[in-house]
Design goal:
The protein has 14 helices and 13 strands. With 431 residues, it is α/β, with parallel strands linked by helices. The protein folds into 2 domains: 249 residues, Rossmann fold; 158 residues, Rossmann fold (3-Layer(aba) Sandwich). The strands form 2 sheets. The chain has a 7-stranded parallel sheet, sandwiched between helices. A 6-stranded parallel sheet has the order 10-9-8-11-12-13, with helices on both faces. Helix 1 crosses helix 14, helix 4 crosses helix 5 and helix 10 crosses helix 13. The protein is globular.
């Protein structure tokens, strides 16, 4: 039995996959703790692990981030990305590290395995010189030859023109992220660490092992993937439904549906229903489909009346819904996209900011859906994209190819295998 400390940012899309991996490690007999926000203490306990709540790190409420980080009020698009990175992820890292150092002093661990966006993981691991790995619920797409700069939602361009485009835009992205790298170095100094030479693309990840959600099949073709990046498919695969998950009262309408079921989700970050949910409801109101909307726990009540073909709930259990779903309309949240593809469901993606434009671009490039190229689409665009996806069997076939690959990678079982293997390796000097 090994002692494992895991870390997770206190957001549903981060904490739930990390806790699924924790549950598999516990099932194998390991003693697992999870450092995350207090609101996920019960989720950690349900996984059989021990919660280590944020103490010095501000115990934020994901439903009201502006209460803790005032600069995040009414922020969308590129401005939100910058504020998220500066205030939330980089800004809290030294305090996360202080929490972890205190926890280690109280009870040492054999392995630190962390969410890449919980950057205190890296700082604490370096301070302690302990063995550590990244367990990433977010997309891991490192820079590489022929890969367009991340963050712009671009697809590969070949030949000299493509190489010139990528070089120019890559330099622009590097310049744009330079202030964030400086902020990272200040975080290192605050944690008592010297400067390093990590780039913005690499500073989040362990240099020894990255257990990554997803698959190389969902990325653009490349021959230079770092060997320590190991893809495991959907990190929620094989995990139990969340405690208290129940089918909505109208579930029989889904079970008996004689028309295609279209699922609409806007994720848990940007929750203004005017961005995607309401345009999708308007787009599909007169279509021969049954629309199932999952609003999430942060979205305000939708204005009524709803279209006659729409059903709404805050949460709809995906193991029940996705096998019955003909298409998903989504904001491009990575976890939801992976779950849809794992069930062979094609997608209409409205990726607005953060990593979502990249996810949308790759889904479309592989033929598994349509990229709306905006996070706030017009109803007509949603309607046209949904008709395309439902009418053309090629979209479902492409989704099924990706789904087969994701299912083959083992999910939480493979993640636990990799972490156990890492436990048997020596700790390199300087890690």
């Amino acid at each position: 039995m090994a002692s494992v400390m895991m870390t997770a940012m206190p957001f549903a899309g981060h904490a739930l996959p990390l806790c699924a991996v924790a549950a598999e490690l516990v099932r194998r007999g390991h003693d697992v703790r999870v450092h995350t926000g207090r609101q996920y203490a019960r989720t950690v306990e349900a996984a059989g692990a021990r919660p280590v709540p944020w103490q010095r790190a501000p115990d934020l409420d994901e439903r009201d981030l502006a209460a803790t980080f005032p600069r995040m009020r009414e922020r969308k698009g590129f401005r939100q990305v910058l504020v998220n990175l500066e205030d939330l992820f980089l800004g809290t890292a030294p305090a996360q590290a202080a929490d972890l150092l205190a926890a280690y002093d109280d009870e040492p661990w054999d392995l630190l395995a962390g969410d890449p966006m919980a950057l205190g993981t890296r700082l604490a691991a370096e301070r302690l010189g302990c063995r550590w790995a990244t367990v990433s619920p977010i997309a891991v797409w490192p820079p590489g030859k022929g890969i367009p700069p991340t963050g712009l939602g671009l697809t590969p361009a070949r030949g000299p023109v493509g190489a010139a485009r990528d070089a120019v835009l890559g330099a622009a992205v590097a310049a744009g992220t330079r202030p964030l790298v400086r902020r990272y170095r200040r975080a290192r100094a605050a944690a008592g660490l010297p400067p390093d030479r990590e780039s913005f693309a690499t500073l989040w990840f362990s240099p020894r092992l990255v257990v990554a959600a997803g698959s190389p099949a969902l990325d653009y073709p490349r021959a230079d993937l770092p060997p320590h990046v190991r893809f495991v498919g959907d990190l929620t695969a094989g995990s139990a439904a969340p405690a208290g998950a129940v089918l909505p009262a109208w579930w029989d309408d889904v079970a008996r549906a004689e028309v295609p079921v279209v699922h609409v989700t806007q994720g848990t970050a940007n929750v203004d229903p005017r961005d995607l949910i309401l345009p999708a409801l308007e787009a599909l109101a007169d279509q021969e489909v049954l629309v199932v909307v999952g609003t999430g726990h942060r979205t305000p009540p939708l204005p009524g009346p709803l279209p006659a073909n729409a059903r709404v709930a805050s949460m709809v259990p995906y193991p029940a819904l996705l096998p019955r779903t003909a298409a998903m309309i989504t904001n491009g949240g990575y976890g939801g996209v992976l779950q849809a593809l794992r069930h062979d469901v094609p997608l209409v993606v409205a990726g607005g900011d953060l990593d979502k434009p990249e996810i949308a671009a790759r889904v479309a490039w592989h033929g598994a859906g349509v990229d709306l190229r905006t996070g706030t689409p017009r109803p007509a665009a949603v309607a046209a994209a949904c008709r395309r996806v439902l009418a053309d069997p090629g979209f479902r076939a492409a989704a099924a190819r990706l789904g087969a690959d994701l299912r083959s990678r083992g999910g939480t079982r493979t993640a636990a295998d990799l972490l156990e293997e890492h436990l048997r390796t020596p700790v390199p000097r300087g890690e």
